Amino acid sequence: MKKSQIWLLTVVMAITFGALLYFQIMYLENMVKMRDGQFSENVMRSLYSTSGYLERQETLHFLEEDANTILKADPDEDFAGQEDNTDWGDTGLGISVTGVEDLSEENTQGQLRFPSPVQNVGSRYRNLQEALRTQYLYQRGLLHEVILTILHDSGKRPVVERADSTILRNYLTSELARNGVELPFGFAVFDTRSNLIYSTEDFQAIPEKDTYTVNLFPNSDTHYSLTVGFPTKNTYIFSSVRFIIPTLALSVILLVVFIFTIVLTFHQKKITEMRTDFINNMTHELKTPISTISLSAQMLEDESVKKSPATLRHLAGIIAEESKRLRFQVEKVLQMSVLDKNSTSALSFKVVDANDIIANVVNTFKIKVERYGGTLQFVPEAPDAEIRVDEMQFTNVIFNLLDNAVKYKRDDVDPSLSIRTLDTLKGKLVIKVRDNGIGLRKDDMKRIFDKFYRVSTGNRHDVKGFGLGLAYVQKMVSIFGGHISVESEYGKWTEFTITLPLASASRTDTLT
């Protein structure tokens, strides 16, 4: 699959997942808002019902109080004015005929008179209507007088009596339950200046955003407010929409898996491209010495060449040099198998003197450096350089670092390489390999130890390799129990630092 197709698939899937998550989050948010609105509506309905209940209870209190006052009054005083107009002797109903006839007119004292039976129907109907209207106005006046008395006297009652906490809690509990709200709550009563009159113990710990307020006794001269709070409101709201959360979590998991798959795809594609480049490069690197050896062999078969000892020696030297080069390339290829294996069973560990091995490698490699007009210096500053490694693999590590330094030399400056061994760390051997080559950029320093990665050399095409050298070096140093790092200044120098445990320190740890 082409990279453009992978990017297109990535963009489409990213937009799809993004839209899916967006709609799920919006749906969850709307569900939370809807549940919160329903909850608030049920609570406020309960609070308004409670406020009305308290007003009705107060009205009932004053009506009962007035009724008790009337019942306790003297009955002789209430009916003294009726003795002259009532005859209790002739009828069993206690009303005389004369009294009924007298109701046809209104007396001068404002008493109500009903129409006389002897009047005609029209007059009696009109008089009856007038009597009922007069009675209605009279009773309405009495009712207004009672209401005014309630409004005047209610403000004199303490609010703790008007809104008893026990009655308030019980009625609130029943009303909230009737409206589907069965949560623990706390409440408080405030005056017009928001001064606390009384509250439950847990009310102060309830956030203000989780409280609801309604006015108490709004039709009286004194106003109070009732505030109710629910400490577990948020838990209740989110628990009602918890069925959406698993789907949202599954979508997030799918998004993470998708991102991981895309990253893995690009990584695998990059490795595939590197392997392809490696095979092409390896084919070229192996083909060149083979062709040279084949050509030299053909020339040896020529009779004229056989008669010239100088030509024979020259061709023999070419064959030997190209064979050595071919062997080196094959060794590079074999190093890849070491990188792909985590097993150390094929390695032969023994205690060696690092100074001696490095000195041998320097003596061999110095010829190649001097061919380019450069210098290679070895400074063994570490008195104790005994390490436990595989001798051949450790030799290849040093050789790869030196070969890498020559490979990336600058054209305008003769190569200058140096190796030092230090004992600056207790129980550790420090090996520093420094060159004055083209240096490394920051991006290259992050990836220089990756397998198949090769540093860009611009327009230069003489730099050959498989991108395995430094990956192999890091792998071997790690197997030896050490660490490798790199420092560089682009265009000026590069320095690799290898830290390995000394054999003496390893023995001490084993004994301990």
Kindly describe this structure.
This protein has 512 residues and is α+β, with helices and mostly antiparallel strands. The chain folds into 3 domains: 1-65 and 117-242, no CATH class; 244-337, Orthogonal Bundle (Helix Hairpins), CATH 1.10.287.130; 345-511, Histidine kinase-like ATPase, C-terminal domain (Heat Shock Protein 90, 2-Layer Sandwich), CATH 3.30.565.10. 57% of the residues lie in helices and 13% in strands. The chain is built from 15 helices and 11 strands. It has helices at residues 3-71, 75-78, 97-102, 121-154, 159-162, 165-178, 233-239, 244-300, 303-306, 309-339, 354-371, 391-407, 442-447, 469-479, 503-511; strands spanning 186-190, 196-199, 211-216, 224-229, 349-353, 375-380, 386-390, 416-422, 428-435, 483-489, 493-501. Strand 8 and strand 9 form a beta hairpin. Helix 1 (3-71) packs across helix 4, helix 1 (3-71) runs antiparallel to helix 8 and helix 12 (391-407) packs antiparallel against helix 14. The model is unreliable at 74-112 and 458-463 (pLDDT under 50).
Query: Over all CA atoms, what is the radius of gyration?
Result: 53 Å
Count of domains: 3
What is the count of helical runs?
15
- For the residues shown, what is the average pLDDT? 77
Terminal CA distance? 56 Å
Strand content: 5-15%
Question: Helices, strands, pairings?
Answer:
Layout: H1 3-71, H2 75-78, H3 97-102, H4 121-154, H5 159-162, H6 165-178, E1 186-190, E2 196-199, E3 211-216, E4 224-229, H7 233-239, H8 244-300, H9 303-306, H10 309-339, E5 349-353, H11 354-371, E6 375-380, E7 386-390, H12 391-407, E8 416-422, E9 428-435, H13 442-447, H14 469-479, E10 483-489, E11 493-501, H15 503-511
Parallel strand pairs: 6-8
Antiparallel strand pairs: 1-2, 1-4, 3-4, 5-7, 8-9, 9-11, 10-11
